Amino acid sequence: FVAQECCVQNAAREYAKLYAAEAETLEGFGEVPEIIPIFLIHRPANNIPYATVEEELVGEFVKYSVRDGKEVNFLRRDSEAGQKCCTFQHWVYEKTSGNLLVTDLQGVGMKLTDVGIATLAKGYKGFKGNCSFSFIEQFRALHQCNEYCEMLGLKSLRTAHQKQRKATATKSKNLPNSSTGKKIVPKKAREHRDFLSSEH
Questions:
Q1: From the record, what ranges are coiled-coil (predicted)?
Q2: Could you give the CA distance from residue 36 to residue 119 in angstroms, rounded to a whole number?
Q3: Which domain holds residue 83?
């Protein structure tokens, strides 16, 4: 478990570095959230031989986002750090084509720790997160873009989600009818297929 914790946090840290490199070039963006490194240590003489070590964060500890995205947090919505964390989530989501999401962003000011990563069930480029892939769907449905999303030129997730739903609805309306001589798909089978295609 501790090895996975290190792997997840340090993977998220790499995404945060890339995000910072892009955001820092923008005029007026300002300070960028940083995910602090976490280290795995082996203590062979101890009953619990593995442990993690990281920098101590001093100050007010805030959860800017939670794993499932359902919690409403005013500090997340109203603070600069909170908005930039939400933008970071959106940036990672877009850069990975919706396959990966950094979640559970929390820490002191712009320094974050103990984060989570959600990937689709199959993982992303050989990496599997520690959170359910349903968090990706929830993020896509609940995320509201802010000024930092706009500064980075990120696409609105609401528009993309609505277009995808309309495309699925249009496909089901354009099924072949009996006049073309093709077989009509029974309604139950059609609903099942649409449900499966909407998951991909």
A1: none
A2: 21
A3: 1-152
Residue identified by tokens 């495309």 is 167
- Residue 182 belongs to a domain: no
What residues are annotated to the active site? 104
Rounded-to-10 torsion of CA 138, 100, 80, 28? -130
CB atoms within 10 A of CB 2: 14
- Taking only the tens of pLDDT, the chain with its 200 residues reads 788 889 999 999 999 999 999 999 999 999 999 999 999 999 999 998 989 999 999 999 988 886 555 554 555 667 899 999 999 999 999 999 999 999 989 999 999 999 999 998 788 888 888 888 888 988 888 888 999 999 999 999 875 545 555 554 545 455 444 444 444 444 444 333 333 333 33
Q: What is the pTM of this model?
A: 0.74
Please choose, from the candidates 165, 188, 130, 171, the residue with its C-alpha nearest in 3D space to the C-alpha of residue 11. Answer: 130
User: 127 near 112, Cβ under 8 Å?
Assistant: no
- Is residue 199 assigned to a domain? no
